Amino acid sequence: MFPFRDFRRLSIVSIGGLSALFFNFLGFYPINAVAQDFFPFLDDDLPSRTRTQEIKIRQPIRNHIERVVDRKEEVTHSVKAQKSKESDVKQATVLKNNLPLFAVVSVADQHISIYNHNGLVVRSMVSTGIADHPTPKGIFTILGRERFHQSNIYSGAPMPFMQRITWSGIAMHTGVVPGHPASHGCIRLPAEFASRLWGMTRVGERVVISPREVTPYEFNRPFIITPKMQSITEPVKSDASNSVNSEKIPHENTLNPYQYAEQMKVKAVNEVLAANKELKDAVVQQHLKVEDVTSLAADLKKSQTEIAAIQSKLSMSIKIYDEAVDRAKIRSQESEQAQIDLKEQRTGALPQKKIDLIVKASEKALAFKEAALTDKKMNEAALAAAKTKLDNLTKLISAKSLDLSEADRRMTEMTNIANAAKEREKLARQRMAPLSMMISRKDQKIYVRQGLIPVFDGPVTIRDIGSPLGEHLYIATTTTEDGKSLKWSALSLPQSDKNEVDEIIRVKLESRSQINHQLSDNSFPSNASEALERIEISQDVRDRLAERLWVGSSMIISDQSPSSETGNDGTDLTVKIH
Fold first, then answer.
1. Which residue in 297, 440, 484, 558 could disulfide with 250, CB within 3.0 to 4.6 Å?
2. What is the mean pLDDT of the chain?
């Protein structure tokens, strides 16, 4: 059994229905107070000062419960209550050290019990689903939390302090708790308890919904897997908020799986930071190279346009020059002929004045030819210079394009490195989450998840496969004193006798090795110890589990396959019972 607190008892006489109504108003109802006829008690020394209730002691007849409380202790508790606001941080730290928690909901008793490695932490009344909308029974997990949630099924109905346990619409949340089933499948919690529970629990913690009361107990036998201690490679900066997992270092040169995952996370975070810095630099350089190439491409285009314009001008100047040469030649010939005719006094010779005009026209044509030649040479020189500039730009843009290609390659490389580092960080953070395992007799497999993400599955060997194992949950609640191993708590869900016998008969008939055997006592479900002893896991699977197994981890042993609530990422391994 759990090492529960040594609760002091005070003998009081119940006032029956009035006490039930009064404490229902407060939001806590440990067991059926009308039937049991007693007050729930308060345990103010808990870290969160949450009201707690004593574990129900079933007795045929009991009209009152005795409690002996030292008056001095009451005064001490009162002083603590007055100073509670000043010590919230300290209490939060204490609460973290009492993690992980797990919840057990008893449908028959309409209450929820929260446990940790010390035993019962707090208990409250609840209201589960009515007959037409029953609350599913089995082993579930807190999958998500929302402080202010509105139902997407029931017209946006408010569900404060919602803690989801299935993606099909089942959650724990604030609601009316009349003392009997009244919901459409959810687990309604009293307002004050819901807000306090919100501050205590985390995603990934187990929630067991049982037809009737089941009490977890300390599992003292060796567990099927032992955590593997890893060698230290780098200093680890522990996260104080997770001190429950990292407060005990077994040896100065070794780390437990959580601390090793934490080291992996620190290393991965540093790698992500470094990779992001390199990626940022690569992106900046790539942008600069793009700007260079873009600018040079614009210059290249401008140069090409300039060359085209110069070539056009050159063509025109060549044409003009050729025409000027022809005209100068004609004008020169006319001038020479006119002067010869005048000199030789030939008949029909032009007068001197006319000859002077022809000579001037010739000189003018020669001058125009020289100007055209100069313009042609200038355009040729400009074209040559423009072509040289274009060649230089072409060579430069080619070099810059190579630089850009290298910058693109480096940016791609840095992007891949950064993404790989982020993936390693994600995996490291996943390894810091509780490990979730399930062994199915029906499938003869072990399923493994961590951080609500599938890790792997593999075969297992189950001795006496024809006999049922039952439905059992094992939770690693704390470490041993040496910090090298784990302490486990276990609970077994009750089975439906008729369904179980039918299953036994079916399996017996299908089992060739036992087909001629009649049902015997050992054909009924094993207890938690016996079920574990019947499981054989390969060394390879053991090694993979041992590297991840630490406080908060859980294992389900079931005759069934994982329920339909076990989907892809974002869900945990769950089992439903009928």
1. 484
2. 79
